[in-house]
Amino acid sequence: MSGVAFKGLDLNLLVTLDVLLSERNVTRAAERLHLSQPAVSVQLSKLRDALGDPLLLPGARGMRPTVRAEALRGPLREALETLQQAVAPAGPFDPATATQDWRIAASDYAAATVVQPLLAGLRAAAPGTRLAMVDMVPARIARQAEDGSIDLAFHTFDDAPPGLRQRRLFVERYVLAGRADHPRLRRRPTPAQFCGLEHAIVSPDGGGFRGATDEALAARGLSRRVVLSVPHFLLLLSVLAETDLVAMLPERLAARHPGLRVVAPPVEVPAFELVMLWHERVHRAPAHQWLRGHILASLAG
Where do the HTH lysR-type domain residues begin and end (predicted)? Predict the structure, then answer.
């Protein structure tokens, strides 16, 4: 078959040819195809014109294939079976036998509060899978999800890029934390005492000394002493455990570190909502659906 002939050939004609070569009878082929006999005869005529060969000739016991038709029969059947498999619905995902690789973009906060708690269950349910954690760069999330560089991302709802699917995971509030024996955290401090403490802050963009807490204080005509800015929560937790510095921490993160003392802050700081983000291209993929469900189940438990 020439490239020109194939380009203009209706796939339905190839299906008809496959059945005709199997049945060698127009009437029986029409029954299998749920078409009328004249319709199948018309399609056979089109096949003959397209391929430049009579393909099937009248014989004493039905139609007899030409040499060209016999040569086509095996490759055509194999090609149609391959195509059928390619367009068939994806089968169910079996985590016990899966060898899937997943890539998740998350901050150290999301890694500690979402990913780390699900790891034991993930390894038990899907031991042949692998999980790669990559740095979460907000400006890159949409592009990475679109090109397949990541499967999922965890980010705050307010700053989530548009165009991605999302599912709310939880709402997080802030607490005041310091080392377990911090002398000035035996009880909830007053606003003045709070502002007099030496504070540390996480600044993901690097070097910032102001955050949501400072905005809340400014609304009341107050300000605090921020003496340390770090890019990650992991470093901040170590600093709090070894110094008299204090910090406003997400409650779930603080709860994972029993070496810290946690008290309610004297100023209300707006909570944030953490969401799971993914691209439409993987929304219906069975493996991806299973992973999202596993994450939600681990948080619910």
Answer: 9-66
Q: Does position 3 have pLDDT exceeding 50, yes or no?
A: no
Tokens describing residue 271? 């909570």
* Structure-token pair, residue 265: 């802050």
Residue 258 and residue 173 in contact, taking contact as beta carbons nearer than 8 Å: no
Give yes or no for a contact between 278 and 151, defined as CB atoms under 8 angstroms apart: yes
- Provide the CATH number for the domain formed by 3-86 in this structure: 1.10.10.10
By three-state DSSP, how is residue 148 classified?
Answer: coil
Architecture of the domain delimited by 101-171+274-300? 3-Layer(aba) Sandwich (3.40)
Structural tokens at position 168: 């709310």
Write the CB contacts of 54 (distance below 8 Å, at least 6 apart in sequence).
48, 66
70-82 mean pLDDT: 89
What is d(CA 56, CA 105) in angstroms, rounded to the nearest whole number?
59
Residue 1's pLDDT is: 47
CATH T-level topology, domain 174-270: D-Maltodextrin-Binding Protein; domain 2 (3.40.190)
Question: CA 123 to CA 129: how far, in whole Å?
Answer: 8
pTM for the structure as a whole: 0.72
Residue 5's pLDDT is 54
Which amino acid belongs to residue 270? Answer: P
Which candidate, 196, 78, 190, 102, places its Cα nearest to that of 150? 102
d(CA 188, CA 43): 84
